């Protein structure tokens, strides 16, 4: 059974840092591209960051570029999001999501349960 | 980056058919995928590609696409289908890999 379990969320002051983790199991983690997606309270889904299966290709949303760093450790079946210079508007539930490709179509087939990040003084 | 536009809210009578739409330039190049999210839960994939359902998704859910518009249709809506629905596709602008629609809240009356 595919499982994605996020951890590392919590309350942090503006300007602070936090590192999120996503532990993967039930599939060959090193074969899959991964993403972080967030959802602010009462708002919609926002794509945050992407990393290729090898970690060689990375993208960020403009809203987090220069502040967040995505990484992965395929030996540990884990995905990470290092978040620095946090702002109130980064307050959200952060989900890790697996990318699946079928032909020319790509989509997010499995999601974790999410971890809440609250940025407040 | 490219945008995907959804109606904020849609309602349907129990047992009737409802269509939720998603518009955006990216949809001229890429298929949309659709996600159902119930309060306090993670999103769940319900439709991907031209019209494919993951295992466990009822066949009352279907997808279609024409031009810059993708649609999710629920034929015979059930009370448990009340949820937020989000579309998603690759971003044809090339700036970012993916883009989400703003979401549609479906109410089953």
Describe the protein.
The complex is a heterodimer of chains A (121) and B (109). With 121 residues, chain A is mostly beta strands. Chain A has no helices and eleven strands. Chain A has strands at residues 3-7, 10-12, 18-25, 34-39, 45-51, 58-60, 68-73, 78-83, 92-102, 105-111, 115-119. In chain A, the strands form two sheets. In chain A, strands 2, 4, 5, 6, 9, 10 and 11 form a seven-stranded mixed β-sheet that branches. A four-stranded antiparallel β-sheet of chain A has the order 1-3-8-7, with no helix packed on it. In chain A, a hairpin with a 6-residue loop joins strand 5 and strand 6 (58-60). The model of chain A has no long low-confidence stretch (mean pLDDT 97). With 109 residues, chain B is an all-beta fold. Chain B is built from no helices and ten strands. In chain B, strands 2, 4, 5, 8, 9 and 10 form a six-stranded mixed β-sheet that branches. In chain B, strands 1-3-7-6 form a four-stranded antiparallel β-sheet, with no helix packed on it. In chain B, a hairpin with a 7-residue loop joins strand 8 (83-90) and strand 9 (98-100). The termini of chain B are far apart. The model of chain B has no long low-confidence stretch (mean pLDDT 94). Chain A binds chain B through residues 35, 37, 44-47, 50, 59, 61-62, 95, 100, 102-103, 105-114, and chain B through 1, 30-31, 33, 35, 37, 42-45, 48-50, 52, 54, 84, 86, 88, 90, 95-103.
């Amino acid at each position: 059974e595919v499982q994605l379990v996020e951890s590392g969320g919590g309350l942090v002051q503006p300007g602070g840092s936090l590192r999120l983790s996503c532990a993967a199991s039930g599939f060959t983690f090193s074969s899959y591209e991964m993403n972080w997606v967030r959802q602010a309270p009462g708002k919609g889904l926002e794509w945050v960051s992407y990393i290729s299966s090898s970690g060689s290709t990375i993208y960020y949303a403009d809203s987090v570029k220069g502040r967040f760093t995505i990484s992965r450790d395929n030996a540990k079946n884990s995905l990470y999001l290092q978040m620095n210079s946090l702002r109130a508007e980064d307050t959200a539930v952060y989900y890790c999501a697996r990318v699946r490709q079928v032909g020319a179509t790509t989509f997010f087939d499995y999601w974790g349960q999410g971890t809440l990040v609250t940025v407040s003084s | 980056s490219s945008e995907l536009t959804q109606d904020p809210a849609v309602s349907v009578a129990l047992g009737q058919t409802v269509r939720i739409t998603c518009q955006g330039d990216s949809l001229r190049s890429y298929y949309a995928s659709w996600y159902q999210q119930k309060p306090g839960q993670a999103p769940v994939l319900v439709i991907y590609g031209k019209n494919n359902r993951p295992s466990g998704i009822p066949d009352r859910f279907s997808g279609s696409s024409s031009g810059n518009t993708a649609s999710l249709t629920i034929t015979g809506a059930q009370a448990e289908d009340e949820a937020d629905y989000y579309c998603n596709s690759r971003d044809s602008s090339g700036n970012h890999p993916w883009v989400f629609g703003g979401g549609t809240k479906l109410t089953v009356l």
